[in-house]
Amino acid sequence: MIDHGNKLDALDGIRAEVSKVVLGQAALIDRLLIALLADGHILLEGAPGLAKTQVIAALGNATGGSFRRIQLLPDMLPSDITGTLIYHPDAGRFQVQKGPILDTHFLLADEINRTPPKVQAAFLQAMQEREVTLGTDTFVLNDPFIVLATQNPIEEEGTYPLPEAQLDRFLFKLVVGYPDEADELRMLDLAALDRRNPIQDVRTVTSPQELVAMREQIKETVYVSDQIKHYIVRLVRATRQPDACPGLQDLRHVIRLGASPRGGTLNLRKACRVLAFLQGRDHVLPEDVKALALDILRHRLILDMRAEGDGITTEDVIQQILEKVEIP
């Protein structure tokens, strides 16, 4: 164990502040913290009304960062996201008009599968490169910068599913369910207070600069042993070559495309380091890998159509891999 001191206190403070206004989503809050400190983004699948806007707005307040929300629509253009150049005849020159992806730390991209592929591509390219070029000027995105992109699993008509290459740019894909009965009752109590903007009650307990420093400390101080590296590689390779792993031969007809080294292996190591840090450790355990594997791998696997027709899900496949791949 190592003493992270004030850093863990700050992270506990973030959890406490966000939980003031977002009930029943503790797992989502923890995954947001991991993505934030792992320099990644989250794809969120869930029904409307599950506090997606509130959770990332509250996270912005708690960390002293800025928050923006974009409602993605079918008639949008890439410039609606990144910005554009506008000609001013009086001045005789073009002027930069920045898009919402610039000058923000926390960005909610609501219903990203509602907007056409060219807009998705511009959006996700900016996420990956952390910069936007408008004319001859290049603008670097804020640091930290995290996108929470949402998809509604119910309404599929008129949507543009994200292609595999775009999905691979998200660290996590989370499936968010409804809160339990106790949390839903607490929501009634909070609603009875009739607060017009509960986000204003969230105190700032850290700063973007401190989060960046924390992220760098994690890279330098949290150790990943050779055994854990081999375990991560074996898990990810089992999604591509299941017949090479004892007990998984049946999956060779189920998985059509497995996780890539970038999307699976590197992201799993990066996220596990953060989880170890959050738990006060300077080393990664196999339990960290197992805890995060599902959320990191579920959107990187493509199953055979016949397997999907039989009701097999990516969650089923990942769980089977976790059970069969030997733990060091």
From TrEMBL:
Pfam families: AAA_3, AAA_lid_2. This is ATPase AAA. GO terms for molecular function: ATP binding; ATP hydrolysis activity. Transmembrane segments: none annotated. Residues 41-172 form the ATPase AAA-3 domain. Residues 255-321 form the ChlI/MoxR AAA lid domain. Signal peptide: none annotated.
